[in-house]
Write a structure and sequence with these properties.
This protein has 2 domains: about 5-105, no CATH class; about 120-270, no CATH class. The chain is mainly alpha-helical. The protein has 8 helices and 9 strands.
Length: about 270
């Protein structure tokens, strides 16, 4: 299992004696920098539990902004600088997870190139697919973001918001995909994964991928019949045209890619 490294100061960070001499604005900047190295919005990497409706802080947390800053800087930075830093950070969120730079594997926690082997006592293939599913989920999230279907950005402690308008993915389906990603991540690090849950999520990914394929085919036929490049996707106030088709095809491919890996994993588990 990956370890969470201790909280630390950024490279080149001032000593406490130096920090005490700095003016309020400079102290605030240093505190915010320190916090950013050690903590992040859970929306970035923390698994999301769709059943209970919350993040699973598997690496520690949630951490409170004020508590962590006061623990490190009380009596060192001015009260005004501390208050300014807390205010700036809490405009983005109030609960935090450890930054990914602090998530480090134990020395003997890897099987070659395939990632964690807490699963050392498990069949090699199972350890491989645990890591492989995580990598493919990363690719899916990247594809979703490039197609304008990504998660909430920095500063959001809430689950991702669904899209609206004409789309190959219904708003409810997009929300389900985001929740499915979190659940699959949780299951692949669980000591005893739930094969039924994983199988349902694999089917869900496949169904959405198929829906995207049908949608793209219909839009392509319409564009061909009209002999023009028509808009194929509306997001907010802007429109994506047929030039965006590769992004949607990458989403479709990534969904199938994840589903295939889950099927292999579930098969190895004996379900």
């Amino acid at each position: 299992m990956a370890d969470t490294m201790p909280i630390s100061d950024p490279e080149g960070f001032p000593t406490n004696a130096q920090l005490k001499k700095w003016k309020r604005a400079r102290q605030t900047e240093a505190i915010v920098e320190w916090f950013g190295q050690n903590f992040e919005d859970p929306a970035h990497s923390t698994p999301y539990n769709s059943e209970e409706g919350g993040y699973l802080y598997i690496w520690g947390g949630p951490y409170d902004t004020s508590e962590e800053i006061l623990d490190r800087f009380d009596g060192i930075a001015s009260k005004g600088a501390i208050a300014d830093a807390i205010s700036e950070l809490e405009s983005e969120g109030s609960e935090w997870a450890p930054s990914q730079s602090r998530i480090q594997p134990e020395e003997d926690d890897y099987d070659g190139a395939y990632g964690p082997s807490d699963h050392a006592e498990l069949p090699l293939e199972e350890g491989y697919w645990r890591a492989e599913i995580g990598a493919r989920l990363d690719q899916l999230e990247t594809a979703l973001a490039e197609a304008g279907l990504g998660r909430a950005g920095i500063g959001h402690n809430n689950p991702p918001s669904p899209i609206q308008d004409d789309s190959p993915i219904e708003a409810a389906d997009l929300t389900e995909i985001q929740q499915a990603i979190g659940e699959v991540r949780t299951q692949t690090v669980a000591e005893t994964p739930d094969g039924d849950k994983l199988s349902r999520r694999a089917s869900q990914f496949k169904n959405v991928a198929q829906a995207i394929g049908v949608w793209l085919a219909k839009k392509g036929d319409l564009a061909f019949d009209e002999g023009i490049k028509i808009g194929v996707k509306v997001l907010g106030a802007g429109a994506l045209f047929l030039s965006a088709q590769p992004e949607l095809e990458r989403v479709q491919s990534a969904l199938n890619h994840v589903a295939d890996a889950i099927v292999q994993f579930v098969h190895l588990l004996g379900f």
